[in-house]
Amino acid sequence: MAVRLPDGCAGAGVDGGGENGQKARAVVIEKQRHKAVRAKMLFFMAKVWAKFGEAVKRVCVEIVLLFLNTALFFRSKLTPVLGDPSPSGVFTGIFMNSFCLFAIAGPANKAEIVYILEESTPEAKAIIVFLIFFSIVAWSVMFSKAWQMRRAKQLNTLFNSEFRTQPHVLDIFDRKVQAEGCPQFMVYEAGSIELDARLKTPAGARKQFISLKGMEHVKRSLENAVAQESLKLESGLILLAIAVSGAPFLGLLGTVWGVMSTFGHIAQQGSATMAAMAPGVSAALITTVAGLLVAIPSMFGYNWLVHSLRTLTVELDNFAQELVSKMETEYLADE
Questions:
Q1: Higher confidence at residue 117 or residue 108?
Q2: Domain of 89?
Q3: What's the number of domains the chain is made of?
Q4: What is the pTM (predicted TM-score) of this model?
Q5: Longest Cα pair distance anywhere in the chain, in angstroms?
Q6: pLDDT, mean of residues 25-50
Q7: What pLDDT score does 91 carry?
Q8: Could you tell me if residue 4 is inside a domain?
Q9: End residue of a domain, out of 44, 77, 104
């Protein structure tokens, strides 16, 4: 079976027999084993759901009903507490009201989220708009980096299979193969260019061996190429780190600002009622919700991308070491 480099990778196919064929068969057997394990896990989960699914759904329904009943109870009982203008009554009402705030925040004929946005302060609206923009950027980075790393893994696998079948280190380089987006190929190309330059004579021919000093220059070129490819894969992740750490604090800033504004209006009116406090507090809390909606997906995406980046970087380092060993075996003169 011939192995070819797709997506802009040109080069002749090679026979997949011998050691390469055994590795290919081992990969197929491993994939079949993983599929069998996944099928068993899915079958087991289906059996568990068939046995306990109805009970889980009943428990969830009961929890929701308990939450709603509790919210209605506090809604009917909090008015006397909130009517007390003393600090203890006001703070007790606020903390108890936060439990059922979104159930009573707006009129029945208007969506709660729309009503809350209308009641929010200009500062809260500005923070929400900024968080929406930040969320779009974060999701764009996550999708683009996931696609980039997935494509890099696929191309690395194909190039590695092709490279191991070559009898000489510079065979792929001599065929002028191009594989854009393949980190291992970029490392190989940088090392091959440096090695070819050290082997070339003034007449244009290629020497049989290279000196130890020349091989050190080749090693430096490979190390530099590994660093450059790692930086390319890592670019953009700082935006996700900023989203994870900064979005919750921006949301908290909007919440604190909104609560402060609500207390200011209540102090000017001289009375603390549910109708006066619920819109302001609910509008203040929505900025924290927006900040968490930005930070939580960014956190999961960032951790997954960092794990993939570490895997690719280790594979690049290992490939560079293997490439140096083959170059030294083939071209380094014995002292």
A1: 117
A2: 14-104
A3: 2
A4: 0.61
A5: 99
A6: 68
A7: 38
A8: no
A9: 104
